[in-house]
Specification:
The complex is a heterodimer. Chain A is of the alpha+beta class. Chain A has 24 helices and 19 strands. The longest helix of chain A is centred in the first third of the chain and has 39 residues. By secondary structure, chain B is mainly alpha-helical. Chain B contains 14 helices and three strands. The chains are: A alpha+beta, B mainly alpha.
């Protein structure tokens, strides 16, 4: 519309005024923006710069090399093996299916492995390397490397993985490693961040677990620059970690191998100890298993096979297995009686084959009785009635005290898992656990290592070593270079004349024609062996079974037969080695356990192989045959890799 | 105003118009666009492709368009104001029914090889229509409720259509830009006071409606509001963008981390680093010096344009310039406030600097109109 000049001027004034107001407002807003900019860029810039650096820089841990586990002479028990593997990156591979199909023609890949690799690749970001196959042979890896042009995105890599070159031999002692689990992390108060690295492995059982801190080492670190999706752009710097320390065990790999193979075919345990310092030279639990299976991730089939085996290969029977010690316990009862002063050891007790106590009849294993027996012959002929009598005189409390003094019923602090404490039954124990009062019969049973008494093969070996040395030796599994040798165990303070009688009893057990282990004697000079057999009842043959004609152990199913035990030490005049053997359901200590105990003892005294000359002449033919058979299974010295580390 | 109103002797004609262009404005525009070229070159990792080169070409084309628009007589623009407004409305309705969907919103119309974004066009046409409306309206009726309502409707109809796409950022800019023209035309203060009061009420309502059946905004818009109010709630989700933007901006310090040295941009922590968040890259690499100098250039553009508006007695020209510059100011202030964590993330580009074709062309058309008003200003009788 047509406007007059006055109207135009009026309009211009209004617009100008409003323009000034708007300009003022805009200036205000711009001022606020500038203020905010100043605040962020000048006042808080340090803080934001720090956040930007946190964004950009990623700290990566470099897993340390795990320490080695070595035997007493440096034989490698657990080492780190070069492991060749093939990894693939999706964004470099292009057509995943094509590349995987080509790869499957070069190396053996199962359908499952291919499928898993494909899934991992699609789940991760395209630049994340995914492991397709592990533990490839040198031939396979070189085939992959030489075909690299046809395999985009595929790279052969080398890593370290735990390996146990002696396989079954030391599985129960050394244990194995496995991927870190939630439970492993929960058990730790402040978990080492290195444990969170994917695929990092931690000791699961045995020395691997208990010496974890020493073996693991300290992680190094690497600072890398990453982009927003986490791809590494470049390495900024790197701090090398410290590898884990090596652990030297007291185990003698040769002897361990011998002991385990000697137990072959049985569900059994054997412990060999140095009586002078407690070094455990062998800790064999048969049957064993291959720990390498666990490192690689054991298959369900293999695992259930191990679980369902009647001989329980996964259990370390040397420290976990608790058995009634049977007659091997009689030294304890004898010493308790001597210590209590209720006998001088020379007086004799008449054994008619049984003893009646408060209306019950307790039998001797020899139905016809031993006649008059003294302490020495009671031990060597294993007369039960003598010890029934002694236990009645000194009581369960003194037997328990002596049992503890000799090392039974104690849980030893060894760097292996599931060490059991055994059981020295007391009145209080029975009241608490059986809700019953202690009976006279309980003491009688305990006096011959039956009833409630339970011991582990390790404890029996400690007892034998203590009897042989008269010192309170403690078992030792790790040779610590810092405390080499001079820690002599305290004296047991048993009177020499008592020990002389005990030792004489053990000597005659083996070397006296009437001794229970006479057929397992050693005839070599300077290797004379003393020992004690034990046969502990698991089930008694019931009247019904007796009526059905079952009289002998052989007629019973395996798992109801008696346990066979044998403890021994040698040389008799200057003891160095103590051995304990428990054969589960082995039926007889003298028939089954004693020959094994002798062989292991001779192997320990003779660098791992018993000399034929040490056996009584009439047995040599048979022994030679057995030795040849065994030799085929034994590891040759050249198979044992000595690590100079 | 009509052709007859022109005092033709006072108007520059033909090539003489070049001399009467607003040259300071042209220099400022080129400087600001230059900031954009440098940053686009940097965020592409030191390459002209894929962003810097097309942007330079578009800016060149934009300048040509600006000159064409500038040389057109102002009365021409006034006479097509109503028509262009209706066309833009129709196109917006077209988007409603035939639009192509991109990133969860319908914004584009496709005619063969040509893709147009009617919401960009609506920014110019709304300002044109309002300026023409208030030029036509009797000065005495400006504050009359009925005529105020008509002005408000002119601004709100395209805004509501854009809001339905949905594009909250552009809708707000349209409404506020229209508000600037209405304010400049001299509508009574009371209306604005009432508007601010009702806006506060509206915000309350929007926030209250959340989670109910009549929820007024999309869920993602609410999440943006949450992230804006407290970016630390969800540093990897909705708050991620704004957190990373603030880190980039703050870490620039006084003089920045150096050209192409910004880690946030180079390592892709910044989202949309070449479009809506380009200011953060500038602030990261050139620091306070770079960022505040860009703000200063923007404010100089605003000042130059406001002076043009104040110096003309041509009511249409003055209102048009006020509208264009109001829209321009809203663009960069909302964008900067957004990346500095002072406003919600609403997807508003930084004018002339962010990579993008439609917005650039529309802005250059807008500045062409400013030039046209400047060249064809009715000079005061001396």
């Amino acid at each position: 519309m047509k406007r007059t000049d006055r109207e135009k001027e009026f309009s211009r004034r209004i617009v100008s005024r409003r323009a000034l107001v708007l300009g003022g407002l805009q200036l205000g807003v711009a001022g606020a923006l500038l203020w905010r900019l100043r605040d962020m860029q000048l006042e808080q810039s340090e803080q934001f710069r720090l956040l930007a650096e946190e964004n950009r820089i990623n700290l990566r841990l470099l897993p340390p090399t795990r320490g080695l586990i070595l035997d007493r002479s440096g034989v490698l028990l657990a080492g780190n093996e070069q492991n060749y593997r093939v990894v693939i990156k999706r964004d470099d591979a292009g057509d995943i299916d094509l590349v995987l199909a080509r790869l499957a023609r070069l190396i053996t890949l199962s359908e499952d492995e291919i499928e898993r690799a494909r899934r991992d690749m699609l789940r991760n970001r395209p630049f994340v390397p995914v492991t397709v196959a592990e533990r490839l042979s040198w031939e396979e890896i070189s085939r992959v490397a030489s075909n690299a042009p046809a395999l985009p995105g595929v790279t052969p890599e080398m890593g370290l993985s735990r390996s146990y070159p002696l396989r079954d031999d030391t599985a129960h002692v050394v244990g194995y490693v496995g991927p870190v689990s939630e439970r492993d992390l929960e058990a730790l108060e402040t978990p080492d961040p290195v444990l969170l690295i994917p695929r990092f492995q931690i000791g699961k059982i045995g020395v691997e677990r208990l010496a974890e801190d020493r073996l693991r080492g300290r992680a190094g670190s690497q600072r890398v620059e990453v982009n927003a999706v986490g791809r590494v752009m470049r390495e900024l710097d790197r701090v090398e970690g410290t590898p884990g320390a090596n652990v030297h065990l007291t185990i003698d790999a040769t002897l361990q191998n011998y002991a385990l193979e000697r137990l072959h075919g049985h569900s059994a345990a054997a412990v060999v100890m140095d009586t002078t310092n407690g070094d455990i030279l062998a800790l064999a639990s048969a049957p064993s298993f291959d720990p390498n299976l666990f490192v690689r991730g054991i298959s369900r089939a293999n695992y259930s096979e191990l679980l369902e085996n009647n001989y329980r290969p996964l259990v370390n029977k040397t420290v976990q297995g608790m058995y009634p010690p049977g007659s091997t316990f009689k030294m304890v009862t004898a010493l308790a009686a001597l210590d209590a002063g209720v006998t001088d050891g020379r007086e004799t007790v008449f054994c008619p084959g049984h003893m009646d106590v408060s209306g019950h009849r307790f039998h001797c294993w020899k139905r016809g009785g031993h006649g008059r027996v003294g302490l020495v012959s009671a031990l060597s002929e294993s007369c039960d009635v003598y010890f029934y009598e002694m236990s009645q005189r000194c009581g369960i409390d003194r037997i328990n005290a002596m049992s503890t003094r000799l090392g039974l019923g104690i849980r030893y602090d060894l760097p292996i898992t599931s060490v059991a404490g055994g059981l020295n039954p007391t009145r209080e124990w029975k009241r608490a656990n059986r809700n019953a009062e202690w009976q006279v019969g309980d003491t009688i049973n305990a006096s011959i290592g039956q009833g409630f008494v339970l011991s582990t093969p390790l404890q029996l070996a400690v007892m034998t070593a203590r009897l042989a040395s008269n010192t309170a030796v403690l078992p030792r599994l790790i040779r610590d270079p810092l405390e080499r040798g001079d820690t002599r165990a305290a004296s047991l303070e048993l009177r020499p004349e008592w020990l002389r009688m005990i030792r004489q009893g053990m000597d005659q057990t083996v070397n006296d024609r009437r001794g229970t282990a006479y057929s397992s004697r050693v005839v070599a000079d300077g290797q004379r062996m003393a020992g004690k057999t034990g046969t502990s009842q698991v089930f008694s043959i019931s009247r019904a079974e007796r009526d059905a004609g079952i009289r002998r152990q052989q007629d019973l199913p395996w798992n109801r037969r008696n346990h066979a035990l044998f403890v021994n030490y040698a040389p008799f005049d200057a003891p160095r080695i103590a051995v304990s053997v428990v054969v589960e359901h082995g039926m007889g200590g003298s028939s089954t356990a004693a020959p094994i105990g002798r062989d292991i003892m001779l192997a320990a005294l003779n660098d791992g192989r018993p000399p034929l000359a040490a056996y009584p002449a009439p047995q040599r033919n048979r022994v030679q045959y057995e030795q040849q058979e065994l030799e085929e299974r034994l590891r040759r010295p050249e198979d044992m890799r000595i690590s100079r580390a | 105003m009509s052709y007859l109103e022109y005092n033709t002797r006072q108007m520059p004609a033909g090539l003489r118009k070049v001399l009467y262009l607003n040259w300071p404005l042209i220099v400022l525009l080129i400087l600001v666009a230059g900031y954009g070229f440098v940053m686009l070159y940097s965020v592409a990792g030191g390459r002209l492709t894929p962003w810097a080169e097309p942007q330079i070409k578009r800016f060149g084309a934009g300048l040509v368009i600006m000159f064409i628009v500038a040389f057109m007589p102002l009365w021409f623009w006034r006479s097509i104001a109503g028509l262009s407004y209706v066309v833009a409305l129709l196109l917006l309705l077209g988007v409603e029914f035939f639009g192509t969907v991109g990133m969860g919103a319908k914004r584009w119309l496709v005619f063969g090889p040509v893709r147009i974004q009617p919401s960009e066009l609506a920014k110019i046409t709304t300002v044109l229509a309002l300026a023409a409306y208030y030029d036509w309206l009797d000065l005495k009726k400006v504050s009359h409720p009925l005529w105020v309502l008509l002005g408000v409707l002119i601004a709100l109809i395209p805004a509501l259509l854009v809001l339905r796409q949905p594009d909250l950022g552009t809708a707000l800019l349209l409404a506020l830009g229209g508000g600037v023209v209405i304010f400049a035309a001299g509508v009574h203060w009371g209306y604005f006071a009432a508007l601010i009061a009702s806006a506060v009420g509206m915000v309350t309502l929007v926030l209250q409606s959340r989670g109910t059946e009549w929820q007024l905004l999309k869920d993602y818009q609410y999440r943006r509001i949450d992230a804006f109010l407290d970016p630390t709630i969800d540093p990897l989700g909705a708050g991620y963008h704004i957190n990373q933007a603030m880190i980039a901006l703050g870490s620039g310090g006084w003089s920045g981390r150096g050209f192409m040295e910004g880690t946030q941009a180079r390592l892709n922590f910044l989202p949309e680093k070449h479009t809506d968040f380009i200011f953060t890259t500038l602030a990261e690499e050139f620091g306070f010096v770079g960022a505040s100098s860009l703000l200063l250039l923007y404010m100089m553009i605003v000042a130059v344009c406001l002076l043009t508006a104040m110096r003309t007695t041509n009511r249409f020209g003055a209102l048009l310039v006020m509208g264009v510059i109001g829209m321009f100011f809203l663009y960069f202030s909302v964008n900067m406030a957004m990346v500095m964590g002072l406003a919600p993330v609403v997807g508003v580009p930084l004018p002339l600097v962010s990579y993008g074709g439609s917005a650039m062309i529309v802005l250059m058309v807008g500045f062409g109109l400013v030039h046209s008003a400047h060249i064809h200003r009715a000079r005061l009788p001396s």
